[in-house]
């Protein structure tokens, strides 16, 4: 058994990647996020239309352990794309998951690709 | 695919490409850009930075790879020599023919060279391009002194460049003063003495007759017979539009140069547009970047078939730092457009000159001049552009408030050092002040190193105020901007939204912001848009805080709470039963709120539309408990039942609550109506509180409970119903227009210069002449109100957004509850 947080770490790609077909591009609001279910994980996926970029990270905010990041607002801090948790506005880099307000907790991010109008998220094959 | 060809890769040509690519992510347009210079577009405005050590690369607006990534075919060092309109192609000097569907002329301008004998001599330079600069620098190594012809904006920029090269610098101006188009005599005189202090010699009233020298220049001879010996000359006396393609192509040219365009920036060929300094509208050429960018934006809008704002001229106000001296000139700088009265402040020892021109009736600001200190430029320009009324003592605008009555015991200055600012992290005012004094001067850094504001975030506005107050006390200049994405205050953004008719966050960010936005500016702008246009907030759902995105309050565990409006706290038994039945059906925890209504907790996001459908069918509407908007107007029973009551408090409370329901504001709003002086509705702790008297109503404003309780203060006595509503209309609208983000009315009042006396003057005595406008704006909000939940419930595509997973119908499996006192509560996370 893993704790909630460890599960997300475990699914981070380390060797071989499995691309999970999540949903069609239109399922994700422009410049915003939605939540994708993969096995027993909840993944926040962001359609950053303004930058023409896609990001994925754990939906679980590690600050107060709330399933909420997909409902957060996205934006930038300098060049860094970020998401703000709707609960207490803690912000995380969408590129590397670093906590931008301090260093006590960070999140796991996952690779995303778009093919034929569908969004795919990359997980470790062994998860 | 349509083909767009841009001739000219200057600042405006580049901006056009950037805007088109942002608004056309699907790349339905193919873009080719021609630039005759060897570099991609660079920042011409800051050319003189090249001399203070910046490299050419630092000045580039975007690297070549940016053009590649955006699939823009950039052809530098290639000059277009012909436009064939009939066959729709352009021909370059290399012989390349390129077809176009739309042609954009962004050819810019070259330096205007006055007809002086000898301009061809060695040692004479134009100040326009990076190449000009490079040759100047090379030549300057052998020179000791240089003169600049032109004492205007461009000339002084060139003088800065020459000064940075270490040469003895002379500025030659034909007019009797520097910057004759922007500054009056006194302002110009002050600028002159400041430049002279830096060692620049200024020669006014000088008409250069001949450039002397044998092959290379040795000096200048003026019409008055005098002579100036210099080794080098830079001409920077104005611009000449690059319109040489016009004639052969049969495009119309203006008398003073430039392609003639209409208000849609079209030349006489509707598929050919001209933008920037190359365009002439109404016989005017606009030699600043801002109007050029605006033109670029409007042409992009036309290509994308977006809403287009016709270009009918542009405000030429400018603010800049010239050789270290701040200079600003705005609106009608000389007060010549209509009869006016100037107010002037001059302080030679400090090197400050300020002038504002006031309309004859003393009500409006027409324009003005600032030298030495331009900190109020933004605010003054806003006042001119928006025709905003003047404060009672207009000199305060340039002098600042001086003494007078100051409210005691309020504002961040009045907080004791030991006051706890952040209660989550237990950080006191003195903790924060200490860090600020050690040199931490921005909010984010302050947050990071003290952890203040990292918990619930409720203290962020206070931390911001404290930082500003401390910086001000240190003598630093602080502009209260929204965040890194908008260099404007909330009030400035509201004015921009109104004046420019902006309806979406993206449009505002494109035109006035930078970067990609954040959790600070998004909800703030969402609130401003709602307060201005009153359109359905969920149409722009991803700029809303989660509460406004899902029209419910997020609670621990990821569920939401539901609060229907119960105006004045009055509810029929049948409706009470409906709430009970709905709560039972969906298993919701129920509680009476502090605002005399009922909160139902524990609804999953996918249940919200179903719950609301049932509530709306029973006659309820949204209570806006989730918004920064009007919450409740609490009441006591008043004359209808109470033996002490003197007015019908419930009826009036319902009327007031229904009047302002749904009104978005800088922070939440609460009201109350008490039926007599016993004040059972606790009206004096509300943003607006109404207390009945024998003769009518007493109106109190700017109170709140919360972490720093403050009593409301009396605004007016013994009002009849209509007057009372009128004053609340004005008060609320004035608050919405002028408050800083997330400041409640009490904080807003505490910061207001002149305090309650001034607020009374505005609301009751209408000293600003704003009353009618404020009432009209409120009337619009009331008229356009609709229940957000009703709209969502009846709109399947909006309804579909209320779902936890996009790829599964499953509910959020992490939501869990445990029993408590016969109801339920969220489980704690392990």
TrEMBL record, chain A:
GO terms for molecular function: 2 iron, 2 sulfur cluster binding; metal ion binding; nitrite reductase [NAD(P)H] activity. It comes from the Bacteria. Keywords: Heme, Iron, Iron-sulfur, Metal-binding, Oxidoreductase. InterPro entries: NasD-like, Rieske-like_NirD, Rieske_2Fe-2S. CDD domains: Rieske_NirD. Pfam families: Rieske_2 (PF13806). Residues 20-121 form the Rieske domain. This is Nitrite reductase small subunit NirD. It comes from Arthrospiribacter ruber. The lineage of its organism: Bacteria, Pseudomonadati, Bacteroidota, Cytophagia, Cytophagales.
UniProtKB/TrEMBL annotation, chain B:
This is Nitrite reductase large subunit. Residues 555-616 form the Nitrite/Sulfite reductase ferredoxin-like domain. Residues 421-468 form the BFD-like [2Fe-2S]-binding domain. Signal peptide: none annotated. Residues 627-752 form the Nitrite/sulphite reductase 4Fe-4S domain. CDD domains: NirB_Fer2_BFD-like_2. Residues 2-283 form the FAD/NAD(P)-binding domain. GO terms for molecular function: 2 iron, 2 sulfur cluster binding; 4 iron, 4 sulfur cluster binding; flavin adenine dinucleotide binding; heme binding; metal ion binding; NADP binding; nitrite reductase activity. Residues 317-386 form the NADH-rubredoxin oxidoreductase C-terminal domain.
